[in-house]
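The protein record passed on below.

***
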Amino acid sequence: MIFVMKEKAKYNLFSNSAWMIGLAVRHQRSVLYLAVAVAVLGVLTSLLGLFVAPTVLGAVEEGVPAGQLALLIFLFTAGLMVLYALASYADANTIFGQFAVRLKINAAIQKKALMTAFPNLGDQAFRKKHQASLFAVSANARAAEGVWGTLTDLLKNIIGFAIYLLLLASLNPYIVLLVLATSLGSFFVSNHLNLWSHRRRDEEDDYANRLNYNRQTARHQKLAKDIRLFGMKEWIDDMYASTLKLYEAFTVHREKVLIWSGITDIVLTFARNGVAYFVLIGLVLNDVISAAQFLLYFSAVGGFTAWVGGILTGFSKLHMQSLELSIIREFLEFPEVFAFEEGEPLTPDVKKPYALELKDVTFRYPKAEDDTLRNISLKITPGEKLAVVGLNGAGKTTLVKLLCGLMDPTAGAVLLNGEDIRRYDRRDVYRHFAAIFQYFSVLEATVAENIAQALEGFDRDKVAACAKLAGIAEKIESLPDKYDTRVGRYIYPDGMEFSGGEYQRLMLARALYKDAPILVLDEPTAALDPIAESIMYEKYNELTAGRTAIYISHRLASTRFCDRIILIGQNQIAEEGTHEELIAKGGTYAELFAIQSKYYQEGALEDEI
């Protein structure tokens, strides 16, 4: 997949080249040493090859004895073999350092994506730059690694150009001008035609993305049932075939355009070599140069042309790679909306009481026409169990994201123990919360690693204790590898798949392991039946006694145990009180509770029948 950013790149090719060289200096200097070695050895090999035939021919013209002629040929051959061997060795070893630098860039991209302010993840510009950055480090040939080959070739071509320029200029400067003119003409015509393809990369991307989407859909495990039950095979095949037909038509049209690039190059090459051949033959006939020198200079014309073309192509290629490198740098420098290291440090303490407050908070998502929440003021006292309920889309999850510091309000402030959280290092604020969301992050790792959220250095005894408290220890202990059992089967074929309730208990163990003073549960039990959800919430309540907790649920009965319940509606807190108080009011909460109760009662009767 190819990602093209429309806006003008912030950095030029010289700035980006310097950035890459700086990375190599800091992390892998062998990249630079080997690049210079490969370039110099390439030029030396070309030079030695240039003089082989003319020198041997000159020796034959002078009547050098056969033994000396054989020795001369042997020395040239041995020299070329040594240079080729050294160049091959140096070139083969470049990949290790270049790959290491690419890994550093990839790690920086990963860190930015994982550590950036949460609102950035919803920013379209951020997402586009992220995807484009990942593409730029996705393969050896992409810019983050391929640029080294381009810089090496440029260095080699520039050195070769300078040497061959001195050689040809001493003979006839007009030949130099001829080579430059034809090389530039061939390059610019070819480049102009090649830009046709580049300008239509979006169109090509669209076809490639469609084909890729169809391929992924056809093999997607979660869609396998639908494909079979609804007979979607023919539909998917038809979509693939129609897209492939359009892609093939685009490719044929592109190749018809690009063929003129080859024709232009043939014509200019013929003209250049013809003129050079004519001039050099004239010099031979007038006894200005010998036959051996004719061979030397004619070969030099071809070599000089290659150096000039290599420089032009190299800069063109470097420009394209620079666009990708610029996107990487712009992504890594994407502005943060929260204070991180520059904010005040804040260390959580489970023994310390923590109060949360929304003070006149209004929040509107970017480009939205209306506020999701408006003028909300809410105080959560230390140790209080607060339930947030409401219809889907009412803003419950948005409210919790604001309380956790994942987003900042459009207006108003979020206070932690009376202080605006914007003054603190936001990552320190996050350390105060243990959250379990509806879509939780179970990773393809061991059970112990999922509970501890770490690969090493964690307390295995604490992991086992938290699993026991969460009620999942017995299940884990029954597994062959116990806490070292891998979870999921995307990476590991022998991975373990838990049931919905077991995953919930695993997430509870993770929350307990974090040992944060504030617990947030954002409909993590939505996939469970009402009874199982109620039991799970009671378990959460039991294990987090004394801590501040916020529960979100669309099933009103599940949060009856909470100290206070707020109902979100019409962008505001519509109702507030205990379960009994809200039922007594006879408002929206009581109406929703009655509807849900009736639904569950009817469902129970149907089950009995």
